[in-house]
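thought: fold this chain, then report.
action: predict
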Amino acid sequence: MTAIAVTIAGSDSGGGAGIQADLKTFSALGVYGASVITALTAQNTLGVQAIHDVPADFIAAQMDSVFSDLAVGAVKIGMLSQVSVIETVAAGLDRHRAANIVLDPVMVATSGDRLLNPDAVSALRNVLIPRAALVTPNLLEAAALLDQPVALGEDDMLAQGQALIARGAKAVLMKGGHGQGERSTDLLVAPGSVVRLDAPRIDTRNTHGTGCTLSSAVAAGLAKGFPLGQAVAEAKDYVSAAIAASARLSIGKGHGPTHHFHAWW
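observation:
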């Protein structure tokens, strides 16, 4: 059977993040990708110039179309900017008994532009986190979800991962890309366990869409039937290689994208 994953996220007109990054990642990893678009952005490597939210009823219609026809093996959730959208997506996931849900709590773009309304943070925390098989916050997002200071080291990362599990998450991938030092360390935290995933920190400004790419790579692995630990480890390797190869691309004047097709081009 063909492995199928669906991304529920915003569109990036510049092609480096959001729906576009997710579909590129699915394709690069041998998974058929479908999409539910939650917002349109006027966006490039320099920032987000405008956001147009898709009406909640049309998001529901997209979900019904995809899930009623395709055998979806995993779901990646990205940009959901409004409370009504979060509630609509949660209802659709329940309606179609969706499994293997990877939640990337997108709040701020690489450029610093806010993508999530402040009043939607509590909805994200209370409505979607308990439905996710994995939540993938970076250090800034984890701090915002918990109303805590940004983690300064691995002990803090572990404590915040465990705090998110206490709030209903089944597993949390605490991403250390915003940290310091020569190594970029992520922690996969689950009830009673923690796995350390380490890679060299790559000195590059081409980091646009890395969070989208990592979460969709995990979803691709889950769609192919991998256990969570394997899906996360292979996703980490894929994203690290895509960042390392990003200098082979010359895209835009700001934060360029990772090289999703580094193994092919």
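thought: worth noting. The chain has one domain: 4-248.
final: tokens above.
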